[in-house]
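Before the break, one more example. Copy the sequence into your notebook; we will annotate it together after we see the structure.
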Amino acid sequence: MGYPYQTYLPAGQAYPQQVMQPVQQPMPSPVVRPVASLEEARAVQTDFSGAMILMPDTAHGFIYTKQINWQTGSAEIVVYRRADPQDTPIYVKKADFDELARRFNALCDQLGGASNEHGTNADAGTDGQ
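Here is what the structure looks like once it is written out:
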């Protein structure tokens, strides 16, 4: 007597293979918790679901993030600070810098070279670049 739900395949045929689709885990939503200092941010319990904890410190202008690192098993804290546009550095183009260096060297040559008080040439240690 056979089983009622069993199917039989003719000899030499294999069961069809089913392709398993990977299940994508949804990213956990970040958790926001205001804090008053970095010490308080360190004391906040780590979320072991992998969700990032955002901790604004509005009194001091910082934002701290805390998230578990699955490779090391430790919680990582990253500190962000709002940058004042007046504090950002101003960069000079290399062409402008090279032109200023050329003009400076020309002025030094007009004044009799760039020698220091010991009588040694300041350019002796450079390779001419």
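The CA atoms of residues 9 and 16 lie 11 Å apart. The mean pLDDT is 81. Try to locate both features in your own notes.
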